[in-house]
Each structure stands twice: as C-alpha cells, then as structure tokens.
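Hi P.,

Sorry for the delay on this. The queue was packed all week, but I finally got your sequence through. Input first:
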Amino acid sequence: MAKVPTQDEVKRAILNVVAEYNIRPGEIVPLLGVSKKMQERGFRADEIKAALRAMEADGLIEPSNSLTQIKITEAGFAAI
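Then the structure:
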C-alpha cells in the first residue's frame, strides 16, 4: 500500500513544481499545469487542492484574477 503524503510534503512538492517555471514573486503559474505535473508525480487531486488552500492560508500563494492561475507571493518565493 502506498504511503499517504502529509500536507507539508504536498506543499513542498507544489513549490518544487512552481520553481520549475522559473518565476519571481508576484508572477503567475498555470494551475492546470501545476496540477498535471503533481498528478504525474503520484499526488491525488484532493491532496493537491487541500495543499493549495493551506498554501493560500499560509500566504505562500494567492489566487490571480483568473481561476486558472495562481500567483506566488514573496513568502512563497522565499520558501522555494
């Protein structure tokens, strides 16, 4: 049976994926692209959604004007 990742592990994996886009604070990444890469790495959609909500609450990301993108904050960039 596969190990269920902790929310911190999922958040770290999301930050690693975001880092692949080579962005700076205040820039956006495509949510669909991040989700696809995460699922390819074995994470489930519900784990990803929960981690994204937690990252928003922690101030690491914020929603962009579009529901299809996320914006990395200064804190999120520092965590990368």
